[in-house]
Amino acid sequence: MNDNISGWNTWSNTIEDWTDVSISELHGLMTGLMTACNAPSEQEWATVLAELSFAPLPDAALTLLAEEGEDTVFQLKDKDDAYAYMPLVPDDEHSLYERVIALKQWANGFMTGFGITDCGLTAEENEMLSDLAKIGAIRLEEDEEYEGGEESYLYIYEFARMIPVSFATRKRKPVKELTLISGLAINAKTTKELQAEGKLPKPIPPVLNVMNQHNPS
């Protein structure tokens, strides 16, 4: 699927001025959250990202994220539609290195997004996430050949793609019930805003990326 059809170009153009994480990682985070939650509103997305210590998204990017979240929930709720889900990574006109790194970032994002849902896991799901964490831990230099080449990349891409499909039928909950933001008024000031106003005595540490629980030492 080329970049125009997949939405890669749309995301790139809309979020080009926001550099906290890559678009693949943001898409993975969105997907991980959408496997367990109902689609958030723009304000709910803004609150979640703020509590994860991300800079505010531009308005157009926040709208895109909310719309994509809604579409993803709709897609993943249906077993047949779910099989058409695809991680947002660049097409094969980009170098293999770019695609591997984008998939690695998507995997990290998914782990974070699903991690903040506090959902229980079956033994099979836990094993799948452990394997996804290995994709998120890939180390590759730009001038280094990826072991196994295109065939290996397609294998790990398909494995990553099937995880949201496998998680798709779980019962979903409202985003406002997440421990991350539970008790916060959705239109309340973020921790960063409170810190800037001097109303918090010291910075609140960001939520730990669940990848840290899975990366090999």
Describe what you observe in this structure.
This protein has 217 residues and is an all-alpha fold. The protein has one domain (3-213): Four Helix Bundle (Hemerythrin (Met), subunit A), CATH 1.20.120.740. The protein has ten helices and no strands. It has helices spanning 3-6, 8-14, 23-34, 42-51, 59-77, 79-82, 96-115, 123-136, 149-167, 191-196. Helix 3 (23-34) runs parallel beside helix 7, helix 7 packs across helix 8 (123-136) and helix 8 runs antiparallel to helix 9 (149-167). The longest helix is centred in the middle third of the chain and has 20 residues, at 96-115. The radius of gyration is 17 Å and the shape is globular. The termini are far apart. The relative contact order is 0.18. Residues 200-217 have low confidence and may be disordered. It holds the Pfam family UPF0149. Belongs to the UPF0149 family. This is UPF0149 family protein. InterPro entries: YgfB-like (IPR011978), YgfB-like_sf (IPR036255).
Please describe the biggest sheet, giving its number of strands, its sense, and whether it closes into a barrel: none
CATH-level-2 architecture: Up-down Bundle
The separation of the N and C termini measures 36 Å
CATH topology-level fold name: Four Helix Bundle (Hemerythrin (Met), subunit A)
CATH superfamily: YgfB uncharacterised protein family PF03695
Instruction: Give the mean pLDDT.
Output: 85
Helix content: 40-55%
Percentage of residues in DSSP E strands: under 5%
Number of helices: 10
Question: Which H/E pattern describes the elements?
Answer: HHHHHHHHHH
